[in-house]
Amino acid sequence: MRSCESKRIRQLGTLVIATSLALAVTACGGSRDDNATAIMPSLPPEVAPPEQCSNQVYPILSASHDAENLAYPASNAIDGKTSSHSRWSSDDNNAALTLDLGSSKTLGALTIKWFEGDKRIARFSVQTSSDNSNWSTVLSEADSSGRHSGFELVEIEPAPARFIQIIGLGNNQNRNNAIVEVQAHRCQDAGGSYSERYPNELGIELIDWYLSIPTDEDNSGTADSISETDLADGYTNSEFFHASSDGGIVMRSPSYGFKTSANTSYVRVELREMLRRGDLRISTQGVNKNNWVFGSASAQGKNNAAGFDGELRVTMAVNQVTTTGENYQIGRVIIGQIHANDDEPVRLYYRKLPGNDRGAIYFAHESRVKDSDGDNFETYVDMIGSRSNTAANPVEGIALNEVFSYHISVNVNLLTVTISREGKADVVSHYDMSDSLYNEDGQYHYFKVGVYNGNNSSNPEEFVQATFYNIKNSHIGYSGSE
Fold it and tell me: pLDDT tens across 163-187, in order?
């Protein structure tokens, strides 16, 4: 039989201290010996938690390469421009891009935007030096992922350095070495904003969507589009569209950049519903198998479309809004839409003013009926708080980084918008669209989800950002409904 002595003190994750060994013996049923000496266990020394690294992005004073390519000089890699047209490039073997931090810094990581980083694998080594003469190799013959369209994290063991050399060893397609932009960081995790996961690994069915981002890599003059097949294959971009550390998809839109068309005033990073699911034989526009119609549409329209009526369910958190600019633009971002041929049956807004710690939710309905000036009639509906430029802090408002859900539903001509939060009653609004002319032949619709920045007057460095944890779309008659 196991002795009482063996049961006196146990450690189950945390240390349990007996007040007296003699009392422990008595509690086990033994007689107390008043002459017994209580022996207290020795406590292990306290272990301090690991120190959190406070990241810094170091200014890089200069970049050089011995055999400069005048078309793509080394200075392009540190000019702050993230278009691939501004890049350093060299076809030399062991081409060394040398960076000068100006003084010795603790270097823990680089973030590098490789040219065509989502199409080819760059091969490289990294060396550091204090005097630009004696070099230590801190990373040898590494490969980029071949999957990142934005910045990619390159961790190194933290060490002091003033000079950094990125030595290009070609790529998996040819001998070219090319870097669009490089940043130097104090911490290995570069602030924790880089996830090893990809957006297509998070349970959101991305084959139903394509993405607009405010770059112009194809020289079209408008924002770039990432196809539904590219999204489903794992497209990621650390600047605009990437996985978060807590399992969501981050979308981030600056206030300035390339727009989706000449007719829009604002920049966006936004998913557009694509019911064709990668079938390029189907046009993106029209009453066809890429789009849906209202249940009030004609029988022919419903037969030609991919489905009719619809539901969009999204769980998300707004992380950042703008704080400067024109009064009516400050702090607002469109987080969900139904778009028609040219008009918008619903735009769902989040808005937080700089003096408030919580934000409002409201939506706009745009009718196809024109007023006397030829403009569409628009109706705004406040759901939580007010959209006013001088709104007080909404009592039931939604704070930045607070998770909530929205549900947009169309049933025949009835629009229903629902906002849900854990521990709170749902907020529900209905709007009758019977007279808005969206049931006419030729009218088609698609959902949009993301951050449509409603501010084009803010300070240049400002942006809007949100994290999306769940996106589900469904339509009557659509086989891909979730």
Answer: 999 999 999 999 999 999 999 999 9
